[in-house]
């Protein structure tokens, strides 16, 4: 049984999430700091709707101070599923995918909550949307591969997709909202599909880029070949071979 080997980007993300949880928990639970110290980093729906969009990128790093399992599940999801993505994408794209997917998921939570009061949640935070995106991106790229969650449970990509979708639907039916909100998991799944290797957005971009290159190639083929030798240079002459005496003019020596 092999262990996943996270790269620098994932290790940095996991260390940051763990250190942030320890720092805020010690400050609030032991040092007497108020819970309001977290407010600038949480997704507060009204604040986001009024332009404070940075909250969409900071909230994935904040987890419930009274529930260690909340941030541990985020670390486990990154550890077991994201290393294979990082090995293909590199550190930069991996970090952009993690933060972009989380921000997209929270934005969808805020937007749907503003339209449907039943699923509205004034404050949301946590890494569930990011993990759902990682799970979908991994599952689509490894439909028949198997990963051992928690070192024990063998799960294929298809099984993982079905599991996370069913659980998210059941939470909506039961109105059991996690700290991330009821809609955020669906936003994460959609982000994993849109921003992963099998993204329709990526296919559209590649098709457009291919057509652009075809047009440039066709334009180059239509350009008439230059006549009369190199423009602006000394005209060249062909000297018949087989002459016994070389020309006297030194211009022809080369």
TrEMBL record:
Keywords: Hydrolase, Membrane, Protease, Transmembrane, Transmembrane helix. Residues 224-254 are annotated as: Disordered. The keyword Transmembrane helix applies. The keyword Oxidoreductase does not apply. One of its GO terms (molecular function) is serine-type endopeptidase activity. The chain crosses the membrane at residues 9-32, 61-82, 94-116, 122-141, 148-170, 182-201. It is found in: Membrane. GO terms for cellular component: membrane. This is Peptidase S54 rhomboid domain-containing protein. It comes from Sorangium cellulosum.
């Amino acid at each position: 049984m092999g262990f996943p080997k996270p790269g620098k980007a994932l290790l940095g993300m996991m260390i940051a999430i763990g250190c942030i949880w320890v720092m805020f928990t010690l400050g609030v639970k032991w040092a007497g700091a108020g819970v309001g110290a977290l407010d600038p980093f949480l997704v507060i729906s009204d604040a986001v709707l009024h332009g404070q969009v940075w909250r969409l990128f900071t909230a994935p790093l904040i987890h419930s101070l009274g529930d260690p399992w909340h941030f541990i599940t985020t670390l486990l999801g990154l550890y077991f599923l994201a290393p294979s993505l990082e090995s293909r994408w590199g550190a930069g794209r991996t970090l952009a995918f993690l933060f972009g997917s989380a921000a997209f998921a929270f934005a969808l939570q805020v937007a749907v909550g503003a339209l449907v009061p039943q699923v509205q949640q004034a404050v949301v935070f946590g890494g569930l949307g990011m993990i759902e995106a990682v799970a979908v991106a991994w599952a689509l790229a490894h439909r028949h591969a198997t990963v051992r969650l928690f070192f024990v449970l063998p799960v294929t990509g298809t099984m993982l997709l079905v599991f996370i979708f069913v659980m998210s639907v059941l939470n909506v039916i039961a109105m059991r909202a996690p700290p991330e909100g009821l809609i955020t998991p669906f936003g994460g799944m959609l982000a994993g599909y849109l921003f992963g290797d099998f993204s329709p957005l990526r296919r559209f971009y590649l098709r457009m880029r291919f057509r652009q290159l075809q047009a440039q190639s066709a334009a180059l083929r239509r350009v008439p070949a230059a006549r009369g030798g190199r423009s602006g240079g000394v005209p060249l002459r062909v000297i018949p071979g087989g002459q016994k005496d070389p020309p006297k003019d030194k211009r022809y020596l080369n």
